[in-house]
């Protein structure tokens, strides 16, 4: 079995999370500049066994696609061309940023640390991945 990699795509920064090889535990991986995302993923996949990529699906409260979905669709086309052997799933990511911020508060991070948007993105990716694992458990 290989890892599952989750992406919380943003126009500036993208949060990444990954499972262990048994696909049990979701952990934050890093946050990368979105312009460097595809290159980062190519390098990561060349070193690690990745079975699947899960990409957040941003939706409005009325269940319509968010404005950022346009950018994500363009990225997904590039991802498919670069890594056609890796399947991609989508996961509803509504509220993950708010939950990530609350997680930071609950874990005792100071106000200055909670302003770290890169950390919020990484935690959001972890929440997306955890949601995927919970909905796909046996």
Give structural attributes.
43% helix; 138 residues; alpha/beta; 5-stranded mixed beta sheet; 5 strands; 5 helices
Tell me what you see in this structure.
With 138 residues, this protein is of the alpha/beta class. Helix content is 43%, strand content 25%. The chain is built from 5 helices and 5 strands. The chain has helices spanning 37-47, 69-82, 96-106, 111-114, 117-135; strands at residues 3-8, 13-19, 26-33, 50-57, 87-92. The protein has a 5-stranded mixed beta sheet, with helices on both faces. It is globular, with a radius of gyration of 14 Å. The two termini are 15 Å apart.
Please list the strands of the largest sheet in the order they lie side by side. 3-2-1-4-5
SS field, number of helical segments: 5
Q: Give the terminus-to-terminus CA distance.
A: 15 Å
Class from secondary-structure proportions: alpha/beta
Structure, briefly:
The chain is an alpha/beta fold. The chain has helices at residues 37-47, 69-82, 96-106, 111-114, 117-135; strands at 3-8, 13-19, 26-33, 50-57, 87-92.
SSE arrangement:
Elements: E1 3-8, E2 13-19, E3 26-33, H1 37-47, E4 50-57, H2 69-82, E5 87-92, H3 96-106, H4 111-114, H5 117-135
Parallel strand pairs: 1-4, 4-5
Antiparallel strand pairs: 1-2, 2-3
Helix pairs in contact: 3-5
């Amino acid at each position: 079995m290989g890892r599952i990699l989750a992406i919380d795509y943003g126009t500036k920064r993208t949060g990444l999370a990954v499972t262990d090889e048994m696909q049990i535990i979701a952990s934050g991986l890093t946050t990368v500049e979105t312009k460097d995302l595809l290159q980062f993923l190519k390098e990561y996949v060349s070193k690690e066994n990745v079975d699947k990529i899960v990409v957040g699906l941003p939706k409005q409260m009325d269940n319509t696609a968010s404005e950022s979905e346009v950018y994500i669709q363009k990225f997904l086309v590039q991802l498919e061309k670069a890594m056609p052997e890796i399947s991609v799933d989508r996961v509803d990511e509504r509220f993950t940023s708010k939950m990530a911020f609350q997680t930071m508060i609950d874990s005792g991070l100071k106000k200055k640390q909670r302003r770290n948007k890169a950390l919020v993105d990484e935690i959001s990716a972890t929440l997306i991945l955890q949601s995927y694992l919970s909905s796909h458990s046996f």
